[in-house]
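Re: your question from the hallway

Yes, I did run it. Sequences:
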Amino acid sequence: MIDVILAVVGGTIAVTIIGIIVGLVLLGIDRKFAAHMQARVGPPLRQPFIDVAKLMCKDSIVPENAVVSVFNAAPLIALASAVTLLLYIPIAGFYPLFGGLGDAILVMYILTVPALAMVAGGFASGSPYATVGAQREMVTMIAYEFPLAVAIVAVAWRFSMAGFSDPFSLATMAGVGSGVVVWDIVGPLGIIGCLILLLVLAWVTPAELSRVPCDTPEAETELCGGLVAEYSGRNLALFYLAGGVKTFAMTALGVAIFLPWNISWFIGITGWTALIADVVFFLLKVIVVMFFSVSLIRVSMARFRINHLVSLYWGYIAIAALVGLMMIILDVFMKGGVVL
Amino acid sequence: MRLSKSLNRSLWVFHFNSGSCNGCDIEIVATLMPRYDPERFGIKLVGSPRHADVLLVTGPVVHAMKDRLQRVYEQMADPKVVMCIGSCGQSGGVFFDSYNLDGPVGDVIPVDVYVPGCAPRPEAIIDGVVKAIAKLERIQEAKDE
Ligand code: SF4
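Structure:
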C-alpha cells in the first residue's frame, strides 16, 4: 500500500515538473516559430522561463471588489487541472500514470476545468472586462466542445467495432502495449474520415488554448486581457504555466489519438536507447502538431469575432467532424479495415 | 522593490495615450515592427496595466486624462518603470501653455526615462528602453552591494 502511494505521489510530482518544463519550452518554440514566420529573430527559447521568473517576483494585486478566495484559487485550480490531464494521457508510448482510472471521456471533462477556473477567476475579479471575457470564454467552450467530442468518440467507437475490450481508454487508442493504432484498423473510407477528424482536432486546439484566432475571451486590444485582465504577479504566472501545460496536454492528446507511433516499433531497438529514441520522437511529434495547430494558424489569421467563432465551430467544423464520423461509420458497414 | 535579472529580460509594456497627437503612438508601433523586433529582448505589448512592467506615456496629459493616468499608474504591480515618449510629455512641446493641460507627465506621475523628439524615431525609443534597463541594473547593483 505504502509503495503504491509513494509511486502515485512521486509520479505526480515528476509529471508536474516534466509537464511544466515541456510546456514552457513548447511556448518558447511556438514564439520562435511565429517570429521566424514573420521574418523576425524572436525571443530566446528560454523566454517563457524568464517571463515566469519575472512574474513570480512581481507584486500580486487583488482588486478591491474581487471575491478574494475565488480570485486566488482560480489560477491554482487551472494549473492543477492542467497537470491532472497529463496523468491520463499516454506520453511517449508509456502507459499513463492513472490510465486505469480514467478514459478519453474523463480527459474531455478535465479539459474544461482550466477554462472553467479562468471563467470563475474572471467573474471573481469584479472587472467589467474580465466579466465580458468570462462570458466569451463560456461561449467558446460551448462552441468547440461538440467537434472535439465527435472526434474522440468516433475514434473510440471505431476501436470498439474492431473488437477492442477497452476502446475508450487512451492507452488503447495510443496502442500502448498492442502497437495497434487507429490507422491500422480503418479501411480506405475510414482513413479519409480519420484525416478529417485529425484536422478538426487541430482546429479545436487553438480554441481550447485560447490562442489567436480564438483568443476572443482574452483579446488584449479590446478587452485588455479579458479573463486575466486583473491578474498580476504570481497569479498571472500560474495562469501562464497552466497555459503551457495545457498546450502540452492538448498536443499530446492529438499525438496519442492520431499519431501514436513509437520509433522503437519500427527499428527494433530495445532498452535505454529505445526509451530515449521514443521520448525524442514523441517530443518531435508534439512540436510538429503544435506548429500546425497553434503557431501556423495563429500567425496566419486575425482574431475571430465571438459570433464568427461560434458559427465556425458549430457550423463548419461541427459538420466536418460529423462527416468524418459518417465516413468511419460507413467504413464499418462496408467492412473496410478490421471489423469484428 | 524586488528587482531581478529576469525583469530586465522580460519587460512587458503598456501603452498609455494621455492626449497626444498620435505621432508618438505611430512611432511606438513602428518600434514594435519586425524590423526592430523588440521581442528579441522579451519586450512585448500587453493589454492590461496589471500585466505591465513598463508604462509608455505619450502626450502632454490633458485635463481629462490626469486622473486616468494616475489610476493606470497605480494599477500596475511593483516593480514598474515609467517612460515618457515625446517632447510634449516632457515640456508640453507644441501644446506648451495650453489652457487644458495638467501635465507635463512628470508633474502627474514619477517618470524614469524621457525620450525627447517630436516624434522620436524608433531608434530613440529603443535607446530609451536600453537606458531604462541600464537604470534597473544600476539600482540592482546598488542594492546588492
Ligand atoms: S511629441 Fe510631438 S509627435 Fe509626439 S505626441 Fe507630442 S506633439 Fe505628437
